[in-house]
Each structure stands twice: as C-alpha cells, then as structure tokens.
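Continued from yesterday's entry.
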Amino acid sequence: MDKDGLWTSVTGSFPLKNNNENIRRTIKDQIDIGIDYPCYGQLESILTQFLRPLTEKLPEFTYSNNRFYLNDEFSVPNETIGLDYVRFLINFLDERKALKKKIKGTKGCLTGPFTLASEIILGENLSKGLKSLLFNEPRGVMVEWIVSKLGDIMKNVAKDYYNMGINIIAMDEPILGLLVGRKIMFHSEDFIIKTLNNVMSEIDCLSSVHVCGQVSPNLRDILLKTDINILDHEFQTNAENFNIFNKSHFERNDKYLAFGTVKTKIQPIKNSKINDYVESEKEIKVILKKAINFYGKQNLFIKPDCGFLPLRDAFDEDFAYQIALRKLKNMVSAVKKLR
C-alpha cells in the first residue's frame, strides 16, 4: 500500500435488493466511481448473512418470526459460513481484468461476535439467572462463552477471506457503541480486546473495525489496544468524534482512521430531489481538510459514515441508490483534489 493516505472505501451496504445482478452493479459502480477498495455491495443484513447459515448448521440455533434463538450449548461448525458474497466478488474481478486493474484492493465485510450475539435470544435453559439489561430479554451478548464461540466462527470467516485474496477485512461491531461507555456492560476490557483480536488472529492483511455513533473515550482506548489496523467511525453525523481522537492516537499505535465523510442516515423531505440529500464536493472538502489537520493525511481512509442499506426503507430503490452513488462520486472527487 502506498504511503500517501486518503485511500477511499465504503463502510459496506447499498440500498438495492439482494440478487446477483445488483451485486455486480454495486461492484462495477464502485470501481467506475474510483473507490480504491470496493466491497461486494453487502445487500443482505450484516446479521442474517451469518446467523441464518448458523441456523442451518446447528440444531441449537433456530430462526422464527425474524428472530434468532439459541436453545442450548453448541460447537463451532467445521464448515465456514457466509463466504458466498466474497467468492462472488473475487470471481467477478477475476473475469474482468480491466476493472481489477483500476483498484488498489478489495474489502470483505464480516460481522463481529458481540453484534451477532446481541441478536441472539436465549432459551430457557441458557437464560436462567440473567436479568434483562439493555434488551427486553436475555441475549447471547451477556454470556462470555457464547461471544467467544461466535468469535471463533468469525475467525474462520476472516481466515478464508484472507486466503481468497481480500486486502482489507472489516468487522462490523455497532453494538460496542452501546456496551462501552464510561462503564462496560457484561464483560471486561481484557475480554473485549482478546475477542476482537481473536477474530483477526489468522490473517496477514489489513483489518478494520466499524463502530457507529458517538465513540466514548473508554471505547476508543479499548480499540487502540487491539491488534486491528483501522478504526472506522462516523464523523459527518457525529462531529463529537473529532474531540475523541487526535493524530498521536494513530501514530503512537500504528493505526489508521477510516473517516466517515458523508451522511448515511437520512430522513425524507417532501417533494425533494436527489441532490437535496447529497453533500456537495465543496462541503466534503471542508470536512476532509479538517480531518487532515486533525489526524494527518497519511493516517486516513475516506468513506461514508455507515452503510447505505437503510435508505432502501426510506426511499424508492432507484432514488435511494442514486443518492448513494452521487455521495460517493462527490466524495471521491473531493479526495482526488486533496491528495
């Protein structure tokens, strides 16, 4: 990887229906726009991509009425789950050498064990003695051995991503923003660090962790102590995060910041046009210059705040997708003028 900084990527998802035609479309559009590290589009929920296959491998896991249940102890399955989308990305690029030459590398997304565990409702045998804190019922994230086993499952995913040739392996852990404030819910700092490190322990490429929302100083310090290379956060929606990090955090800990540059949480406006939701290149340059001054150009990846998938629920699909593409076009254009 070059040393110049301001590499461009995406957090992940796009607001299109999940089918092969749309996956091809998102990959090609990312590359045509000029994204340095495109992903496979992530058109499926970060939860169902991995939890649904688990229900097919393990009888202890069940899926009912759009909810996941764990009814007993389980073993890590021998076969790695959730690899189809990355296989699709690799095969797509292998068949289109001209497109592949335009990018610096690829990004593969996986979901972190804490976030996966937070969606698992515990059956009666496993929930005895647990109080319903943070959730309406006891969840897997409250139990250390469940989070650890999910970490082992995702370690296998990361290892296979790496062996397939992925250059940045990105772990989505939005739940950590809720679990770690002034105090840590359910677990110790050491356990969180150990678990996150474990997921990335068998790869030799760049690793990343994405946490949405406002980052607490406590969470910042925990993430800086991990072996993960890139910390990925929102800054356009959560400007308070400018006060959490400084340049020395990244240089002292040999890490990068994936800097959220355009908003992805958007409320519809009556009689609006696409550009009503899109930051101008000028606006983006302003926040990028601030980031460069705060953190140093060489320490920055540039990407949207979060994934675009929620736009699919707020707008007509094509309208939502055009919002995402125009945001990315303006983001890449602004970056090119500041490199």
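--- second protein ---
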Amino acid sequence: MFYWLIELSNTFPALSGLHTLLNVFRYITFRTGGAIATGALFVFLFGPWIIDHLRLRQGKGQPIRADGPQSHLLTKKGTPTMGGLMILSGLVVSTLLWANPMNPYVWIVLAVTLGFGFVGFYDDYLKVTKQTSSGFGGRTRLAIEAAIAFVACYALMRLGRQPFSSSLVIPFFKDVVLNFGIFFVMFGAFIIVGSGNAVNLTDGLDGLAIVPVMIAAASFGIISYLAGNAVFSDYLQINYVAGTGELAVLCGAVFGAGLGFLWFNAPPASIFMGDTGSLALGGMLGSIAVAVKHEIVLGVIGGLFVLEAVSVIVQVASFRLTGKRIFRMAPIHHHFEQLGWTEPQIVIRFWIIAVMLALAGLSTLKLR
C-alpha cells in the first residue's frame, strides 16, 4: 500500500514536492524495516485480545498427548492453541502495507502461507473441539498441502525464465544445475510440503519453533534481496531471479510478527503456535526457497527442522522394522527431555544450533 505513494507522487502534480521524501518507499531495505516494525507492533497490540478470545472459545485449551512427556500434562495443560493466527495476522497486515502489490512472487508465497495456515487451523480446530491430540487424517492433510504446493510451484515455473525456473541449483558450484523439466513441480512441492511439516514437528516446546523460523526468515530475507538484485547476484555469482527481492519484505514481516509472538510464547507460554502457525510458516519458507532457487540451502539453514523430521522418520522406521526405538521419544527434542535436559536448556541450545546453521547456509553465497 505504501509503495503506491510513489506512483501517486508521480501522477499528481500537487504531490510533486513530496516526491523526494516518498522516494524512500522505493527501497526494499526501508520497506523491510517497516514490515518488521509493523508486524511486531501489530502482534504486541492485538496479541492479548487474541489470546483472551482463544482461551474463552477453547476452554480446556490444546489437548496434550498422553504418550508425550508426563511433565507436559502438568505444565502445559489448559494453554490455548492457534497462536499462529497472531503471527499470520501481523504477517498479512505488514505485507499488505509494505510490499509491492504488483509483485507476483509476494502473492504466490502469501497464498501458500495462508493455504497451509488454513489446513493447520482446521486441524487445530478438530483437536480443540474433540479434545484429542490428533486432528483430521494425515493422508488427507498431506494431499491438500501437496495440491497447494503443486499449484504454487507451477506458477513459479511459469513466472521464471526457462530452463532455469525448472532446474535445481547446486549452491557450491558456479554453473552446476540439474534441469528437472516439468518434474520440477513435484520436486518443488516436496520441498514446500516437507518444510511445512518439519516446522510442525519442531513446534513442541515453548519458543522452540518460532525463533528458528525467525532466523531462517531473516536468512532468506537476505538471500531474496541478493538474488533479486542484478548487481549483487552477479558479484556473488548466484543466480539472478528478477522480482524475488520483494520477498525480503515478506520475510521482514514474519520476523517482526515472530518477535511479537515470542513475547507471549516465551516459557511459560501464554499461547501455543499450533499447526495454524507451524504449517503456514514452514510452507512459507519452502516456497521462498523454491522461488529464489535455494532449495538445498534451505536444508542447511533449516537443518534443525530437518533433524526433527528425520528423527521421527527414523524412529517410526526402526520400530516397524525391528520393534525397537532408537530415541527415547520422537521428535528429538522430547528425547532430550527424557534424558533429563530442562525445557529452557533444550530450547536455547536448539536456538544456538539454528544460528550456526543459518551462518553456514549464508556462507554458501561465497563458496561459488
């Protein structure tokens, strides 16, 4: 919305005197800073009202898994869920205010985010209304997520330049790309769906998921800005994707909304993110990675999410094949709880790992 002020100053002579002042809205960096501030302020201001409303509507709050850590039945019982609504509200408002509304990448990523958020919301709704730790069928949920991701990937392929838009870029080399052709839609959809569910699995302790999401969003904000800038992308010898720089504004909105949410989600949490937030934010990260052609880098920056997802896959596979469990409990953050680590120890140490992985992922920008 603010981006249109530039056009207004060019269209109406009466505003010509403000052209120099309004020209600052052309800069992605300025609008990204505005998106961070707006997202944080929105959640700070409206967060308490949303929490009170959700607590009143949900009554008993999010059901706690009976097969999870027993301490959670005492410390987390009655806490409302669907806190992702706070993040998504701040994200949407901030993005609409500060992003360029003519940029198609913004709308595609925002559509994936809200689509996955709706799937997560319905899942949370079923859990709360039925007071069960399981929502609707896993296959149905994955099918809906895959459909959203397929459409988004197809749109991203048509939007980019061929054959680059249907190729996988190897980040450690200058010119190594693997052209998947039309099958890139399947690969891209796998990245988006996998990212959404990996973040969802990570969301199990107070503050555990939101900070790594913010770190990943900040990292991809930098990558989006560089990949969408012809000068910087040429200097770094990364692939230039025209228009993706605007995604930095969306990443800034996520970072700001995440800051506001963390204020209420810090231990002991006043509200849980729920599938509403974790699926949406994971899907957003995956779609941005596909848009800027840094899918492999997502696996590095989001390595913590990958670790959580792999721990569940390994645990299930091991139990089905051998009848034995590798971890005391999965996802892996529960394994450390069973080992005697306190919740703050796990959360802060995982945050440290997320920072180190983000630095490793960003370092790939100069490894070509």
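Residues 4-8+27-366 form one domain. The longest strand covers residues 167-169. Will compare against the first tomorrow.
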